[in-house]
Amino acid sequence: MESAAGAESNGEHEIIGWFEDVSENTGYVQTQTLCRILELNSGVEYLKKWLGDINVQEMEASALESLYTSLVPLASHADLETYIQRIADGDTSPILTNQPITTLSLSSGTTEGRQKYVPFTRHSSQTTLQIFQLAAAYRSRVYPITPGRRILEFIYSSKQFKTKGGLIAGTATTHYFASEEFKIKQEKTKSFTCSPEEVISSGDYKQSTYCHLLLGLHFHDEVEFITSTFAYSIVQAFRAFEELWRNICSDIREGIVSSRISLPKVRKAVSDIISPNPGLASWIEASCKELEDKDWFGLIPKLWPNAKYVYSIMTGSMQPYLKKLRHYAGDLPLVSADYGSTESWIGANIDPSSPPENVTFAVIPTFSYFEFIPLYRHNQNCSSSIDDFIEDEPVPLSQVKIGQEYEIVLTTFTGLYRYRLGDVVEVAGFHKGTPKLNFICRRKLILTVNIDKNTEKDLQSVVEVGSQLLGKTKAELVDFTSHADLVKQPGHYIIYWEIKGEADDKVLSECCNEMDACFVDQGYIVSRKTHSIGPLELCIVERGTFKKILDHFIGKGAALSQFKTPRCTADEVLLRILNVCTIKRFHSTAYG
Ligand code: AMP
Asked: How many domains does the chain have?
C-alpha cells in the first residue's frame, strides 16, 4: 500500500506484521501472556492467598491457566482497594507485583463519581506507545500523512502529586505524556505535536487550550490531523475558539502572546515559537467571519486545509458529542480512536474508514489476559439482579462468540488479577483469531428508583430522541446529566440540559414528555403507569453550567484529557451547582 512518503514505512509494516502474527493464534498467545504475568509476579501476597505456594515455573501452561481461573476469584476494584492503599502508603513488600510500584494512576472517576488508584508501570507506557503506533500504521494505509508534519493535539496533563508513601500519582495520560515513550512516539510516527511540553503540562486547561489553538493556527498549513484522547476535548476547544478567535488573531498579527496566558513558562515557550504574521492573521480573520455566518460549520477543514481527518475516542459516553464534532469537521472523516482504560489497553481500531457509529476494536492479546463474562438481558419483569443482566461463567478470549455481550475481566502486568472492568462489550466479528469488540456501555446502572434499570446507554438514547425535537428551534444540546431523586416521594428522574440558543417552553415541554415516554425499560414503564415513579423532570441549566462541573473535577485533580461528563450524579456539590443554575423546569405529562 502506498503512503504519501512512498511505500508503507518499515516501522508500520513491522508493527502490522507483529499484530497479524499475535492475532493468528490467540488461545496460545493468551495462555503465554498469563504465564508471563504469573511468572513475573510469582509469590506475591495476593496470588499466594489464592494459589498457595505452587511453583508456576514448573507447571504446564494450560494447566496453570485452568488452575488460575479456578482458584483466583473475580475481583472488583473494591476487593483490591486495601492492597492498593497499602502500596500508596509506602508498603514496599511484594503485594501485587514483585517489581516495586512507584507510580499510581487515577482512573478518571468522573463516571463513578470517585477516583480510583490503579498501579502504573513502564509496561503501561510501553503498551500505550505500541497501540498508538499500531493504530497509526493502519490509519496511514487509508489516510496517508506526510512524515515530519504536525498534529494539532488537544492534550492535557493534570498535576502529579505524591501519595502518603511517596509514590507519584496522577492520571494515566499525564504519566504517559511525561514518559520517554511519548517522545519516542513523536519520533517513530514522524509527526509532532504543535504545542511544546510546557503547554501540555501547564496545569491550567484554559491556558493550554488557548495555546493549543494559537499554535495550531501558527502551524495551520502543516497540520496533518486533529486529535484528542476523548472527543469531548476537541468540542470544548472549538466551542472556546468561537469566543476567543479575535484574541488569537491579534496574537498572531503582533507575534505577542495574550496577557490571559499568565504562566511564565508557558508564555516563554509559546513566545519562542510565534512571530508577527499579519498575513496569516488577516486570512484567519476573514475565514472566521465567513465561518461565523455558517454557525462554524466546517471550521476544521477551513482553518486547517491540509488536515486529513479528526481522530479521537468518539464511542460510548463520547457519542453525544459526535454531532457537534461532525459540524466542525464538515466533510473531513472522523476516525474513532482505540479502546482502553487506565487499567489496561484493550483493542485498536484497525478499520479506520468505518464511521464512529460502527467502529470495532480488535483485542491485542499480548497486553493483558482477557476473560469475558457472558451477559444475557434479564427477563424485564424480574428485579432480583443488580442490573439488567444475568451472567454466566467467564470464558477465555479464544472462546467468545459473535453477537454475544460480555463484561471484560482483566489480569494485567500491573498486578490486577481477574479484575472486573465494568464495561459491557459485544463481539462484532473477528480479525483472524482475535475478537473485534463493539463498546456497549458501562455495566453500572445509573438511573434506578425501584424496579427500573437504566444504564448510561439507555439514558443516552432517550436524550438523543428528546433532543431531536430541538431541531425545530435554533437551539442545540450542549451537555446533559441526570439524577434519580429519591427524596420526594414517589422518586423520579431529573434530566439536566444545557442548551445553546433559544427554545420556547412549548418545545422544551414536548422534549420532556418525549424523553419520559421513550425509556424502553419495562420496570420504568410499569412504575410510571402505576405512579410508583413520578413524572420525569427536565431542568434547563444556564449556559456555562457544565464548564463549572468540569472545573469542579479539574479542581479535584482530574485531567481534561480523560474527562467524561458524569451522566448521572448523586454528588452533593454537583447537584448544588446544577440546582443553583437551573433556570427552567418542566414536568412530564406523558403518563397522565
Ligand atoms: P478511565 O477511567 O479514564 O481510564 O476511562 C476508561 C473507561 O473509558 C473505559 O473503561 C471505558 O468505559 C471508557 N472508554 C475508553 N475507551 C473507550 C472507547 N474507545 N469507546 C468507549 N468507551 C471507552
From this structure: 2
Residue at 564 is within a domain: yes
pLDDT beyond 50 at 384 = no
If we measure between CA atoms, which residue out of 95, 1, 90 comes closest to residue 44? Answer: 95
Query: What is the distance in A from the centroid of ligand 1 to the CA of 416?
Result: 17
Q: Note the pLDDT tens digit of each residue in 243-269.
A: 999 999 999 999 999 999 999 999 999
Last residue of a domain, one of 332, 364, 390: 332
The residue whose CA has the least distance to atom 20 of ligand 1 is 315
Q: Is the dihedral angle over the CA atoms 393, 404, 365, 122 positive or is it negative? A: negative
The verdict on the CB of residue 534 being under 6 Å from ligand 1 is: no
340 C-alpha vs ligand 1 centroid, how far in Å? 6
Closest ligand 1 atom to Cα of 349: 19
Residue 111 has a pLDDT of 45
Nearest atom of ligand 1 to the alpha carbon of 172: 4
Q: Which of 289, 308, 332 is the last residue of a domain?
A: 332
**CA dist 109 to 121, 564, 571, Å?**
20, 9, 12
- Report the nearest atom of ligand 1 relative to the CA of 116: 2
What is the CA(422)–ligand 1 centre distance, in A? 10
170 Cα–ligand 1 center, Å? 17
Name all contacts of 11-20 with Cβ < 8 Å and 24+ positions apart. Answer: 11/133, 11/137, 11/188, 12/133, 12/136, 12/137, 12/140, 12/141, 13/137, 15/130, 15/133, 15/134, 15/137, 16/134, 16/137, 16/138, 19/134, 19/348, 19/350, 19/362, 19/364, 20/432
- How confident is the model over 533-567, as pLDDT tens digits? 999 999 999 999 999 999 998 888 778 888 889 99
For residue 85, is it within any domain?
A: no
Lookup: cell for 24: 493468528
Q: Is 342 in the pocket of ligand 1 (CB under 6 A)?
A: yes
Question: Does residue 221 form part of some domain?
Answer: yes
Nearest CA owner, ligand 1 atom 3: 108
Taking the C-alpha atoms of residue 437 and residue 425, their distance in angstroms, rounded to an integer, is 6
What is the span of the domain harbouring residue 200?
Answer: 144-332
Q: Say how many Å lie between the CA of residue 311 and the centre of ligand 1.
A: 15
189 lines ligand 1 (CB under 6 A): no
